[in-house]
Structure formats: C-alpha cells, structure tokens
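Pair request: fold both.
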Amino acid sequence: MGDAPQPLSDQEITERLEQLPGWERSGDEITRSYGIRYHGGVAMIVHVADVERLIGHHADIDLRWDHLRFGITTHDAGYKLTAADFDLAARIDHIAASHGAQPR
C-alpha cells in the first residue's frame, strides 16, 4: 500500500488555482459551480463519476434544478488539498465543456 497523498502548501494551492479559472478555495476544499439544467446535470455527473472511478478520486456533488456544484478535497490526506484535487478539477472542467455547462 502506498503512502498517503501529501498536502500542498498555501503557495502551491494559489499557483494551481491560477491555472483553473472559476475554481475557488474554501478552507481545505476547492469548489466550482456550473449552470446546467437538472437532466443535463445528471448526465454530467455520470460522466464525472466514470472518470473518478478510473483515477480513484472523487468530488462531493450537489445537483440543483439549474446548477451543479463540485467540492474537492483529499480525504486520505486528512481533508487537505493535494495535487489529485487539481487534476480532478481540470478533468471536471473538460467534462463540463463537453456537456455545455456554463460557468456560474
């Protein structure tokens, strides 16, 4: 079994957030919301879940009628931010674009 993921420093988090417009830090989590109607949001969640299963990392997801919110942190690192969180966020952005989700 491998070592636990290493938390990023505040400086590393700031630098990585600069590469992901629309994502915001909220404590030890990064978050982003997209405007997308409910059924489109469900389809997007399924797509994200397929990717999450492949990479072994997941986001907390909140689906509402007209928007979808993701929150990401690394549970195995004591609920701290790691490189895996930013990788997943970039993948979610790519998926959002393919589903026509709008920045919110």
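--- second member of the pair ---
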Amino acid sequence: MTEHALVAERAPRLPAHDHPADRPDATRTGGLTVRGLRKTLGGRDVVAGIDLDVAKGELVSLLGPSGCGKTTTLRMVAGFLAADAGTVTMGDRDVTALGPERRPSAMVFQNYALWPHMTVTQNVAFPLRTRRVPKQRVAERVRDALELVGLAHHAGSRPTAISGGEQQRVALARAIVQEPDVLLLDEPLSNLDAKLRVSVRDEIRRIQQRLGITTVIVTHDQDEALSISDRIAVMHDGRIEQIAAPTELYARPATGFVASFIGSTSVVSGRFLAATGVVTRPGDTVLVRPEQVALADGVPLRATVVRVLVRGHFAEVVLAADGAELRAYVTGVPPVVGTETGVRIGDVLVHRDGVLVEAAR
C-alpha cells in the first residue's frame, strides 16, 4: 500500500476552505468531546471542570504555562490517568471507564518512549504485534507509516543511531500505524533545538492534515500553537480561559491573561493613554500590541528611545514617556538609544475586570 493509498483509506482530504471547526455538526461525527473533566492532586484542582469539543479532523492545541493542567488533561483523555469527574467521548463512544489500550487513540510522549534495543521498524510495529495483527499486515502498515514520515531509509536503524528529530518522527509513526481516531501529542517538540522544532512541527501538521486525524497537542510554545492549530485552548489554573482560532485569539484575547500570554503587549498609561482618546473607567487595563505602535515624525506625542532589542529582521524598540513604557516593532535601521521620536498608537485592547470590553480597530 502506497502513502497515497494509506491517506485515502484513513480519510478523504478536506477542501482547503472546509476547516473542521467550521462544520457545526462536526463534534457529533467522530471527534473528541470532554465534559466536566476534573482532577484534584495534593488538595488542588489541577484540572477544574474542563469542557472541550474537537471536531473530526481538527487540530486543537492546549496552550499554557507550566502547571496549568494541560498535560494532566491530555493524560486523562488518553486514559493514563483516571479523572475524578467528567466524561471523555471519542466519536459516539463514551471511553471514560476504558484504559488507554482500549481507547481509539494513540499518544506521542514528550520523551518519545522508544525501545533502544529495537530497530525503527520494530518500535513502530510494537503496538500492532501486541494486538496480534497478522505479520503481513504489520509489515504493510509499518512500511506505509515510515514512508509517510520520511523514515523508510532508517527502517533498520536503532533509535540511538538517528537524530532527535528523526526519533520524534519514529514516535509519530508508531502512533499513526495504529490508525487511531484521536491522536494525542504531549509537548512533542520540547526536546528539539529551535530550528529543528520549526521543520518538525510543519511535518506534524502536514501529516495530520493528510490523514485527517482528530488531534490534540499540548504545548507551552505560543509560536508552535499559532502556526499549526485550527484552534487553540489557552489554559490557566486548571481552566480553559479561551478557545478560538489563532487569528481570533490574537486579535481579541478574551481575558487579560490571554492577552499577556499570546504575543507581546504593553500597558498603555500616562501620556500614552491620553493620546489614544480611549475613555476608560477606574480599574480598566488598556493594552497595545507592538505592531500597533509606530515611530512617526510630525505628531504631538513624543517619547525617548530607552532600549533597542535586535530580533533579526526587525528590532523591538522600548519607548518611555513620564515613566510609562511602550514597545514598538521597527524594520530597517532602528533608532539610537537616547533619541526622541514621535509616537503614533493604533488599535488598543481594553479589559474591564479582566474581561475584554473593547478592541479598537
């Protein structure tokens, strides 16, 4: 069976405009549904009653800082950790009481969990052999999975003889070969260097889209989540603060925490706030993204350049006025520290009691 045959057997390719999250009935036709999922450890609600719908064929990232409950959530979905309350449904089947081996899901662990004494082929074949799949069928499925992840040439190698990125793809092939309905990945790129993370994350997305597998990935890296997800669920203190498409999440962060965690923001105050013309109430927080702050001549608002941080093809410039600071992204030659410049502020975000009430356009 060729790679294309494997793809056709697993799921039809979706039209480019037909994203799973856009189909209102998708969660009722083979995705993942979580209701009221809760886990208490050490007297603390690590996961505090999560509801989550992942459409069939959709990739959703659980994003948040360390200790927010994202990995605990994934382990309960996979069945490796029993939930204190709540239900997990895969497709139309309630799998809450089932162990991981009986759920129609496969998990890629953070450390890959490869057997060092086995070859790549033997590692990928291991879950099929434990299920007593016929040898010929095992050979076909392993070959197709290795071709799909681009590792057919390493079929006879051992994990210790290949790179970290290749080991990650072996772990992905071992999950894919099981033909799961739901693919679960726990920070699969955290052990890779920055450049390799970019190429491997793109490969994960390519394979996920080709096979149409419902996928949940845990990460603390916002760039990773923004680049590969259909939707992102931002977690904080055991709860989902907001779940939305990457563009919506960035443009309209529902809470102050989401705004501070996704992308970069500056608190607008003092002379900067007065220049925006925004009418606020006591306790309101006004935030602005660096790309909405421009250095401009001939404008009344003036600020001093206090720091310049080179980021590669652009510079992050820190501006100060009367003790308040803003950050701006500048391309080309950055200004010199200590010089004065005009500042123009574009769209801002206003949060009242921690909740978004205005997103100026």
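Observation on the second member. The first strand starts at residue 32 and ends at 41.
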